[in-house]
Design brief:
Order of helices and strands: HHHEEHEHEHEHEHEH
Distance between the termini: 33 Å
Number of helices: 9
Helix content: 40-55%
Number of strands: 7
Structural class: alpha/beta
Shape: elongated
Number of domains: 2
CATH class of the largest domain: Alpha Beta
Largest sheet: 7 strands, mixed
CATH topology of the largest domain: Glycerol-3-phosphate (1)-acyltransferase
Strand order of the largest sheet: 1-7-6-2-5-3-4
Length: about 270
């Protein structure tokens, strides 16, 4: 929202300033503002991303931060909001309820690269949500630096030892009340659009952190790429259920994984 406002203000100021400098009576005094609005918007977008790049420069990709930065969370969320608006994405939230005030683990199905972006846009800043993501996402020029500073965690699912270290870091972030954690238990995006089995190990985060578990589903994000720019995409985001520690007391990771899978499968089939 702030990015959009700044772009519009710069665009309007530039257009008005140049238009007022054009002597009245010239034929181009009447059509020039329309061209200037287009040029000004393009220039403003370039300036905005340049500023975000400068903001991101101090955040080293090689550093491991123990606590997320609210400043980085804000600008990451705001930039994502700008992207989603111009990607013509409309989010319909089903069964919306207040998320827990304490830090939590959020699990969701995975259809598109837009899934974590949409969730971060809606809830990332307010609830300090850091996602567990694949290493290549941290190579994104601006976003990767912000992700790292927001304590997003890079996981190589083929390296079991490093995966365990990431799970320990996630537990630490929750128990220290620094950040909530978002994860896609399927492990990767569903290429065929179907709902796949879970990697049960991620559910040990909730069990060991003794925190609320937010079960969420997302629909239709896999249509965004093919719909853009001709038409908008309506994405359905459902908060299926919030499980508190008392709800899964005595369970092991496999049992909790199966329960969440059933809840999400029921939601996706509705």
């Amino acid at each position: 929202m702030i990015c959009e406002i700044l772009i519009i203000l710069f665009d309007v100021a530039l257009t008005c300033g140049i238009t007022l400098a054009i002597p009245t009576g010239h034929y181009y005094h009447y059509w020039a503002p329309f061209l200037l609005l287009i040029i000004g918007y393009v220039v403003a977008v370039g300036i905005m991303w340049s500023i975000l790049f400068l903001f991101a420069l101090p955040y080293k990709k090689t550093n491991r931060y123990s606590k997320p930065s609210k400043w980085a969370l804000f600008w990451l969320s705001d930039a994502l909001h700008y992207i989603h608006k111009h990607a013509r994405i409309k989010v319909k939230i089903i069964n919306e309820e207040a998320l827990p005030k304490e830090k939590f683990l959020l699990v969701c199905n995975h259809l598109s690269k837009f899934d974590p972006m949409i969730i971060s846009d809606l809830y990332g800043y307010k609830h300090n949500i850091a996602f567990i993501s694949k290493p290549t996402n941290f190579k994104i020029p601006i976003g990767g630096r912000f992700m790292n500073r927001c304590c997003y965690l890079s996981i190589d699912r083929y390296d079991k030892l490093k995966s365990l270290e990431v799970i320990k870091e996630a537990i630490d972030l929750i128990t220290k009340d620094y950040s909530s954690i978002g994860v896609f238990p399927e492990g990767t995006r569903s290429e065929d659009g179907l709902f796949h089995e879970f990697h049960e190990g991620v559910f040990s985060i909730a069990l060991k952190a003794n925190c609320p578990l937010v079960v969420m589903t997302v629909k239709n994000t896999n249509s965004i790429k093919k719909n853009f720019p001709k038409r908008k995409t309506v994405v359905e985001l459902e908060i299926v259920k919030i499980l508190y520690p008392n709800d899964y007391s005595g369970m092991i990771a496999k049992e909790l994984s199966d329960q969440c899978h059933s809840l999400m499968e029921e939601s996706l089939n509705r």
